[in-house]
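chain below, 588 aa
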Amino acid sequence: MEHNRYLWEVCTILETLLIASCLVSAFITFGLGIYVYATIPGEKAAILFLAAMATATYWALGEFFLWQATSYEGVYFWLRISSFWPVLAVLAAHFILIYTEHPLSERRRIPLILALLYLPASFFALLGSFTDTIYTVVFDEGRWIYQPVLSGPFYIASALYVIIVMILAVYLIASAWFNAPNERIRQQNRLVCIGLLAAIGFGMISGLLLPVLGITTPNFIFIGLAIFSCCITVAILRYGLFTLKPETAGPEIIATMPDGLLLVDPGGRIISANAAADGLFGAFAGSLPGTSIRTILPEDISATIRMHGEEGETITDLEAYPENIGGKAISIAASGVRAPDGKPAGCILIIRDISARKAAEKALRIASERISWLTRLTRHDIANEVTALGGYLELLKDEEDPKRRDHYLDQAVRKVGTITGHLRFSREYQDIGAYDPVWLALQPLIEQVARDIRMEGVRVVDHADPVTIYADRLFIKVIHTLLENAVRHGGTITTITISTSELEDGSLLLVFEDDGTGIPDGEKELIFQYGYGKNTGFGLAFARDITAVTGITLTEDGEEGRGARFGIRIPEKGWIRKGQADDHGTAI
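prediction:
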């Protein structure tokens, strides 16, 4: 008898402790939810965490007051009030999806989340609130208590559903734990995983094990929720979960920032480098620290950085073109750092790859120059044609010979046609730079230019293969410039030969060669500079810019006294052969 009374007292104390754990859990979960939301307000993870903790608080208070009730009505009321426990499981699972950045957490997956999580949970919660199919109130050993309805399918289904949802949540957080990028994140995920396992374990004791044994007690899950809250608190305070403190966020931000970052001591030795710096300079991870910045930056740039570092000055946009990074252009921002005693302690370098920006600037400059020079070129050509037209009209006015009059009239008509062509060409390319390159048949372009230019006894022999090339729409101007320059500046020129040949690397070499006076060795590059030349001074420069749009190169390698030889090299993927050329060439 004494033994039974002692056992009864022990059970009463344990039951009292369990009931008290409900109240303790309610305060802990509510306070933790508010704290997390205040730390990162507006974040989806914080909102879901607050919702889950508020639901846990609501459930814990319902369980507490349920065990304080002494009547059937009181127990029944609080049982119905606290029947939304399945919603807690799906809120926790949704939080884990957001926290681990699972694809199901994307906005477009919301309908799927509602269907798989919230709809079933709401169904079971409503059954518990408005029916007796999940829990029922019974009178046992002198008091009213609630028991699960094990004889029906709904309780088992709801319990299994919650268990499956929570196991999936544990799987996600466990995967994030083992795949964490660093130790801090790994510790955070481990604590969250342990907390979830504790909640699931204590929940299964009260939800499945004890009902099968016929034991009715206050729900053990609130002990698990208290443990979960403790794990989250440790993760927050010790490992920076949900926070962005300098000691935790700084290294993470530096490690993941897209720009390269180097910490350099006063002697120019690299102390630390992030992953972006390793990638920018093609270095193995962790190999830059201990080396000198002179090994990765030009000497003059390194000296400038050291000088500014010693003086504590700031560099905002220092451009450099290191040879060891494949021709990339970089921008360096540097700030000197001083020790507490005021002496220089080194500097911090932020290095950004600006290759794309420089390429865009060059493209914009070329496009602008093309518009300007095209306008000047067209105006110049039209002026020449108008002068010639005026001359023919003057001759026509005083000429009485019918044959000569017909000849002058024919020449005047041709000049008008040429002027019209120039105007049409100018109008077509008034928005030059907005057009994409196109595939152009080479031989029709050559034939058209040869017809338009006044050759004056100069013969053009076309040995070029019938190929199609990928070039800017203005490529016809390149051919026009080469032929016109040969006629105008070739001196004793009698023949211009155009030929093509396929090179070993698959590229196509298009050659314009004449038998004139040629170009002196000292001028072979100067002729491609704007403003240099005997006429307008921009034809060849403009031609080289046009070819550069699609990676085509234009050079001159003729021999002075034996004629000029311009080579246009078209990349392997920039041309297509359409057939075989006439072995003897075609005279135009």
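The first strand starts at residue 135 and ends at 140. The two ends are 128 Å apart (CA to CA).
thats it, cya
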